Amino acid sequence: xxxxxxxxxxxxxxxxxxxxxxxxKGLVILxxxxxxxxxxxxxxxxxxxxxxxxFPDCSGVMNESVLDQQGEILxxxxxxLHASTKxxxxxxxxxxxxxxxxxxxxxxxxxxxxxxxxxxxxxxQFGADMQVSLTNDGPVxxxxxxxxxx
Length: 150
Known about the structure:
Structural class: alpha/beta
CATH topology: D-tyrosyl-trna(Tyr) Deacylase, Chain: A
Order of helices and strands: EEEHEEEHEE
Number of helices: 2
Distance between the termini: 15 Å
Number of strands: 8
CATH class: Alpha Beta
Oligomer: single chain
Largest sheet: 6 strands, mixed
């Protein structure tokens, strides 16, 4: 599982050109799921994201988490994070999970993040055409791959 985590002062996703969902201060997470991902990846990655200290404390030092800040989360599925560009110019998505694997894992991540921050999170819609906009605060962008825990 790969997550691109961006600290945002606000963010919005437009789904299929009509429905809009938004958050205030918090995290925008682009999540790529691969066939080899397990419940262990969900548990490890959700805890890592929730406890990631990338928000400033009262001294301006990045020392607080989204949980400490009572921030919100916008979670967007993005299979293109598993693109392989080794050969040619057209990316291959062979590592990206098929929907029958990815959807249940995505739903487990939604539940894990919601439980971790003790509030409902905002999501995109799996497989939909989405337009994501955000104000990246800092900017702060972190990439975490659950297959590279060490």
